[in-house]
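Tokens for chain A. Residues wanted.
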């Protein structure tokens, strides 16, 4: 019985690999560059750490509120996904800012993912 299952599984796996099947995407179009931020985000350009913390917390709070909203949790639009990504990225950016370290990668992601969330809300 185990041999039969292995043969069936192997044949199925070979079939999937040979057809070049790609993962489904909830958004039609290219899947490579989700961020529409060209170059550096506005957050990264801000050199005032205190002001930057306020901005990041604002984006994080908005993302948390959306991620906890049943309206967006049950929506067919990817708002919940981007809200979840934004709250994590903003949370990490804020964590670094608490130690006065400006992590450009997480700041870029925070702004980008929040922008994507807002874009799909409208």
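Reply:
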């Amino acid at each position: 019985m185990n041999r039969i299952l292995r043969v069936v599984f192997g044949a199925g796996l070979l079939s999937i690999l040979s057809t070049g099947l790609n993962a489904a995407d909830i958004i039609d179009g290219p899947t490579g560059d989700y961020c529409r931020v060209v170059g550096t985000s506005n957050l990264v350009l801000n050199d005032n750490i205190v002001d930057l913390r306020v901005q990041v917390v604002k984006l994080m709070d908005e993302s948390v509120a959306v991620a906890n909203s049943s309206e967006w949790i049950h929506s067919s639009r990817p708002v919940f996904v981007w809200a979840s990504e934004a709250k994590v990225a903003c949370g990490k950016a804020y964590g670094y800012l608490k130690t006065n370290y400006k992590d450009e990668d997480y700041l870029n992601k925070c702004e980008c993912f929040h922008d994507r969330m807002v874009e799909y809300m409208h």
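The chain has one domain: 34-121. Confidence is low (pLDDT under 50) at residues 5-26, 28-32.
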